[in-house]
Amino acid sequence: MVVARHFQIRSFLVFWLFMLSAIAFLDRTNISIAGTAIRDELEINNLQLGWIFSSFLLGYAAFQVVGGWMACRYGPRRVLAAGVLWWGVFSALTTVASPRVAHALLTLILIRFSLGAGEAVVYPASNQFVAHWIPVAERGRANGWIFAGVGAGAGLSIPALTWIISRYGWRASFWFSALVGILVGIVWYAMARDLPEQHPLVSEDELNKIRATRSIEGIRSGRLLSWRAALCNLNVVALTLSYFTFGYVAWIFFSWFFIYMAQVRGLNLKANAFISMIPFLAMTVCCLSGGIFSDWFTGKFGLRRGRCGIAVVSLVLTAVFLIVGSHARSPYAASIILAGGAGALYLSQSSFWAVSADISGERSGVVSGVMNMGCQIGGAVTASLTPYLASRYGWNAAFIFAALLSIAGGALWLFVDPSRSHRQESTLNPRGEVASLVRR
User: Fold this and answer.
1) How many CA atoms lie within 13 A of 186 on its CB side?
2) Which of 80, 212, 366, 407 could be disulfide-bonded to 68 (CB atoms 3.0-4.6 Å)?
3) pLDDT tens for residues 333-363?
């Protein structure tokens, strides 16, 4: 009885969103791990392989707003469950690519585009869940857990999928990804609900805590923040542009780091499988740490300095690691320093998503979809631009360009002020109900 009384269902659901996030990145990074085998079998070059990487991100970016709207309209429970099923189908369909298939490259591009379109729902729907379920003071930590799945899924997939590919071929890795995703999605649908009021395991104490910084009337009516106020403001524009730079840097690690360490740094498959895990483990640790720091600084210094200060510092620090790491002579030193850049980058992850929930309320699914669209466009650009810069000017130039973008992304956070949106919100809400915590 004591355990049941202290059990918080929102904590379990946040953990399961961590699992869904990990599966999402398992499904999207498997192509880079299998990329060398696919490239050799289809007899394509790195630039064409970059088109395959970009096609996923273009589909992912194009459907971000649609995914956010679906989460607002149908709820995160059903949307995420349907999304995971979609991912499983198109992960499995990746295995049809073969030299015997006519237009195999085009077929693979279309399949990856469709997979990206299906995965577009994952983080807008997760943010819709956060807006409904998570008190403002816990949103940094909640997003830290959700996005720790990025590093965990991408990092742990490297040794697992490398082993599967070495034993059973690259197609087996996609079947494995599909099966695991579907199983995790079934558990999500069974355990989740769109609102805490709908969940039979939510205690009265937990419900009261959730409601303390959230107007349930506003959630039901959607009146807390108009669509225009949610989308057409400086906060959203600055977040979206900054997240573009975040995505550009992040997808260097997701798309090219494994290949970079093999082709440029000369690591064999076994060594590369271990070394390539390091940036993603750093992402996991720093994502969790960034969420804790974000909530702590927010409680101590207010929304703007708490959320935005961490983002500015982390993005500038990322640039330093990228420049130093790319010039390191030892492949092992380079991997560790560049991993520091990946970790520094992900210190800011919780800030992006916590602020998008802080400023948008019921519209959080759509607002975060717009923001995440910027990130994925950045990723699509790096998937094709990075190999071009590397082939034309060298890999050091490619990393320096990414570092400059990261500095620009940090500067954009100087224009973000979450408290500004809450002041606007208080004029839009006819009852003027704004929680004291977010009024600061």
Assistant:
1) 7
2) 366
3) 888 898 899 999 999 888 888 888 777 666 6
User: How many domains is the chain built from?
Assistant: 1
Hey, what are 79's tokens? 């949307």
Can you spell out the DSSP letters for 274-316?
HHTTHHHHHHHHHHHHHHHHHHHHHHHH-HIIIIIHHHHHHHH
Whether residue 217 lies inside any domain: the answer is: no
On whether residue 215 sits in a domain, the answer given is: no
In a domain, 389, yes or no: yes
Which amino acid makes up residue 327? H
DSSP label at residue 121 = T
Q: Angle between the 278-301 and 139-168 helix axes, to the nearest 10 degrees?
A: 170
Cα–Cα dist 153/141, whole Å = 18
The answer as to whether 142 is a domain residue is: yes
CB 198 within 8 A of CB 129: no
Please give the single-letter amino acid code of residue 51.
Answer: W
Range of the domain at 384: 9-198+223-439
Q: How far apart are CA 368 and CA 375, in angstroms?
A: 10
Where is average pLDDT lowest: 1-10, 298-307, 308-317, 321-330?
1-10
Decide: residue 311, CB within 10 A, 0-12 exposed, 13-18 middle, 19+ buried. buried
pTM here? 0.72
| Six-digit token string for 376 | 């994925």
Per-residue 3-state assignment (H helix, E strand, C coil) for 75-108:
CHHHHHHHHHHHHHHHHHHHHHCCCCCCCHHHHH
pLDDT in tens, 84-99: 999 899 999 999 888 8
Rounded Cα distance, 301 and 317, in Å: 22
How far apart (Å, rounded) are the C-alpha atoms in residues 102 and 64?
A: 31
Run of H or E including 68: helix 64-74
- Report the distance separating Cα 360 and Cα 225, nearest Å: 7
Positive/negative CA dihedral, 341, 346, 347, 353: positive
What is the phi-psi region of residue 226: left when phi exceeds 0, alpha when psi lies from -120 to 50, beta otherwise?
beta
Count the Cβ atoms, other than its own, within 10 Å of residue 106. 12
Look at the block and give the residue holding tokens 């992900």: 346
* CA 15 to the chain's CA centroid: 15
Cα separation, 228 vs 376, in Å, equals: 23
| Residue 352: CATH number of its domain | 1.20.1250.20
CA distances from 399 to 36, 320, 382 (A): 22, 10, 11
Residue with tokens 């939510």: 202
- Residue 390 amino acid letter: A
